[in-house]
Design a protein that fits this description.
- The complex is a heterodimer of chains A (81) and B (441).
- With 81 residues, chain A is an alpha+beta fold.
- Chain A contains two helices and five strands.
- Among the domains of chain B are: 95 residues, no CATH class; 205 residues, no CATH class.
- Helix content of chain B is 73%, strand content 4%.
- A three-stranded mixed sheet of chain B has the order 1-3-2, sandwiched between helices.
- In chain B, a hairpin with a 2-residue loop joins strand 2 and strand 3.
- Chain B starts with a helix and ends in an 8-residue tail after the last helix.
- The C terminus of chain B is likely disordered.
- The chains are: A alpha+beta (81), B mainly alpha (441).
- At the A-B interface, strand 1, strand 2 and strand 5 of A face helix 1, strand 2, helix 7 and helix 12 of B.
Chain lengths: 81, 441
């Protein structure tokens, strides 16, 4: 089953998001720059995870291990990494 | 390419457009148009997308299609309820019920279902719907005033974001130049505050006002507060606090937020009334809106379990932003009307709003150890229970975001049973033990 999520990273890490989109191919949207009231500016992208999930998961694990900030939004719920 | 509209269910929840009221959405569009006419120049206005979700924060977005503003209609409801509380000053139990509900919602949007569930239950114990309704009955004049104040706060929040949208396009140089005198006035204000604190007579009055505030809070709660007496800070500590704010005043991020607050407030008032005599009230309402938005930030910091240092930094920003906005708007009122009475009126109303917010809402929030209270009452439900989608629907329902068709009687009964096993006394005991009254928060 495909699942739609948004992946957020600090705006300074936008390039890493672009690389990820390149690897995932057609299952992703374009990068949006988002700034909530009082919040930090982030680069975010919508991803539809199906067959590309394993690659996405390994990207996430690597990012988590390198202690870099990210968050995932699904159905209006944001989980911070 | 995925459009912003198509991404909203992921970002704000599958039902984020179901509760949007078309009339309000159309009013927000008119607000965007009017404010943009004042500040946007030849730039293309951002496209407006209205949602309704517990996230509540307005957000600017930029993609390949251009600039967008997502406005969350629920923010207006929050402004409405907080303002109503501040105008009517209900008992501590009614304020608690709302603060717990808000904290539950902030946990909900972070996917912390057990914490959200605990707060939903504790909110219901603090005060039931009947108690809340009767405590918040409004006389007609208050109803009208509160409606206007809410409208100004929403317009201010939208206008603040629109100023960001101008600045994000490397425009707005004129705004930056016009803001310089406000920054200078704030620097002078901070220098004066340092001198004032060194004057023994001023300091005695300052300490007395802190003690009076604590006494008011204890009287409202009916229990002594166990937090440290923050008037015991030394002069050197108080001065160091002001000096931190002088440094912060040079921070580019804070300056940009200050510009958006200041011109957002002016644009909001301008679009709502051409009469300069309305400015004192409208500007004071904008300062109240900023306090409410900063409250959301404070609660989110608690949910994210930010460090004491980060929370303290954030508090410094809140205090400075509020003071900066007030300094700027006072100068603006003076320049417009050339009348000392309008300036005094603005100061009087803004002070009154600030006091009402502090004594009825903020002090309550600071007195209660919200994370501690959450942890204590989380024990009533297991992770497995809250992982059940039906149960999650119930939690959302209890926190004001219901309408989930899969809601089952079983899950609702479970949450109600938990509510019944809690008691007001238990909450008060936890609150009384709270050690979180920290003046730096």
């Amino acid at each position: 089953m495909d699942i739609s999520i948004a992946l957020r990273v600090p705006e300074a890490d936008k390039l890493e998001l672009e690389e990820l989109i390149g690897e995932l191919g057609g299952d992703s949207g374009e990068i949006q720059i988002s700034k909530p009231f009082d919040g930090e500016t982030v680069a975010q992208v919508l991803l539809t995870l199906g067959a590309t999930y394993p690659y996405f998961k390994s990207w996430l694990v690597f990012r988590g291990e390198s202690r870099k900030a990210f968050s995932i939004v699904h159905n209006g719920t944001e989980m911070k990494g | 390419m995925i459009s912003i509209e198509a991404s909203l269910p992921t970002l704000y929840g599958a039902d984020c457009r179901d509760r949007v009221q078309p009339l309000l959405a159309s009013r927000y569009q008119s607000t965007v148009d009017s404010v943009w006419n004042l500040i946007g120049g030849d730039l293309e206005p951002p496209s407006l997308h209205v949602v309704h979700s517990p996230i509540a924060r307005p957000t600017t977005l930029v993609d390949l299609n251009g600039h967008h503003l997502v406005y969350d209609q629920y923010l207006g409801q929050m402004f409405n309820r907080l303002t109503r509380i501040e105008l009517l000053l209900p008992g501590a139990n009614v304020v608690d019920a709302y603060v717990f509900k808000l904290f539950g919602q902030r946990n909900l949007i972070r996917g912390r279902w057990r914490q959200a569930s605990a707060m939903a239950s504790v909110s219901g114990v603090a005060a039931n719907q009947q108690q809340i309704r009767s405590a918040l009955v409004e006389p007609e004049d208050i109803f009208g005033f509160r409606t206007v104040l809410t409208h100004v706060q929403e317009t201010f929040a939208i206008a603040h974001e629109l100023v960001h949208s101008v600045l994000a396009r490397n425009a707005g140089d004129e705004l930056r130049v016009k803001f310089e005198p406000v920054l200078e006035a704030q620097r002078i204000h901070l220098e004066k505050a340092k001198l004032d604190l060194a004057d023994p007579a001023y300091r005695a009055r300052y300490v007395q006002s802190l003690k009076d505030d604590r006494k008011t809070l204890e009287d409202r709660r009916g229990i002594p507060n166990s937090g440290a007496p923050f008037w015991e800070l030394s002069l050197a500590e108080d001065v160091a606090e002001i000096e931190r704010r002088v440094v912060l005043l040079r921070d580019p991020t804070l300056i940009e937020e200050g510009i958006c607050d200041y011109f957002g407030a002016i644009a909001a008032a301008e679009t709502m009334s051409p009469d300069d005599d309305d400015r004192p009230t409208f500007y004071a309402a904008a300062t109240l809106g900023l306090l409410h938005l900063r409250l959301i930030q404070y609660l989110d910091n608690l949910v994210d379990d930010d460090t004491e240092i980060r929370r303290s930094d954030d508090f410094d920003q809140s205090v400075l932003r509020a003071s900066l906005l007030r300094t700027g708007l006072r100068t603006d009122v003076a320049a417009r009307s050339n009348s000392a009475s309008n300036v005094a009126e603005f100061d009087g109303i803004a002070t009154e709003f600030n006091r009402a917010h502090s004594s009825s809402v903020l002090d309550q929030v600071l007195t209660v150890d919200l994370p501690g209270l959450t942890k204590k009452f989380m024990a009533f439900e297991t992770k497995a229970e809250v992982d059940d989608p039906a149960h999650q629907g119930t939690i959302r329902e209890f926190l004001g975001f219901g309408g989930i068709p899969s809601l089952t009687r079983h899950a609702a009964d479970g949450l109600l049973a938990n509510r019944n096993s809690l008691s007001r006394e238990l909450i008060d005991q936890t609150v009384a033990r709270s050690d979180s009254t920290d003046p730096t928060l």
